[in-house]
Write the structure tokens for this entry.
Amino acid sequence: MSQTPSSMLHSPSPQAVSAAHAKQALRTVVARDVDEHAHNLTDWQQHYDQLAPGHFEGVIAEWQGCGLQIFREGTSRAIRQSCQVWPDAFWFGIEARPSGMRINGRQVTPELMMTRPGGCDFELLTPDHHEIFGIVVQRDALIASAAQLGCQVDWDALGSAELIKAGADGLDECRRSIDQLLHLAGARPGAADALHLQQQAVLVSLLALLDGGDIETAASASFLRRRRIVNDARAHALQLQDQPVSVPMLCEALHVSRRTLQYCFEDVLGISPMTYLRSVRLNGVRRALHDSARNAHGPAAIGDLAAAWGFGNFSQFSCDYKKLFGETPSATLVGHKLRH
């Protein structure tokens, strides 16, 4: 990549940045419910399921410029995220500390950066105590900036990529640039000139990764088959939402052996089929409880909501619910009312 001054980047002027963020330079949001947290990132469509037991806490620190969104997200418990970024953009994700998260079932190793185009669904699985940096850039602005800097990027390949292999030094530089921008935005909300320069520093570090990195080839056919089996199992279980679903039922519906089903889930999600599907159903009940708490005619019976998600044994359901979320179903109803 040629050494072009950062002032030549295709990005908004300091005056435009100042006008856009005169009221709020840095947006920080804390949530203590995984579903609430899923709705806190601006202009994303997201659906989160908590997978690991215990009380949840999520934090987002977010800054936006014209055509650019930069954030740091922290979550206390392992979660499955179904995500979609705003259209005509690229998302890039870098773990704050490598932890073995997954994108669309593929393991993210320390030298990899994640990416997906806007308007396209993708799935992330993150472990306990996880932090990730995110950059979302409007497609045309990124292409123009790359041209100004002399970057060579295969845009067609990037549009279908999930992972980019980049050097550790470059990833560290990008992390530092993002961290510095968020710190600056929080400490000096009126510093438009400094924010403009740091915004460009983030783009320079990102484009250096794209210019020097290798876009990973598509997942193998065998892995894609395992991922399809997992997705089909989830879809089948949700179609039978009000019925208890067993491993033999799934195997029969998908025409696979018990061993194959187990292996597919462990390889793609890192957990067993029933552990995962039980978590999905418990998260479904939790969302139903939140919806019920907002009902003007009063909340529905907890037992009815549990039965609607296939839990016939109320005592076992209550035990499983408290184990996953760290509170009873009735406490969820009370807590939602107090927060709202």
Residues 1-24 have pLDDT under 50 and may be disordered. The longest strand covers residues 130-138. The CA atoms of residues 178 and 336 lie 34 Å apart. The chain is about 45% helix and 20% strand.
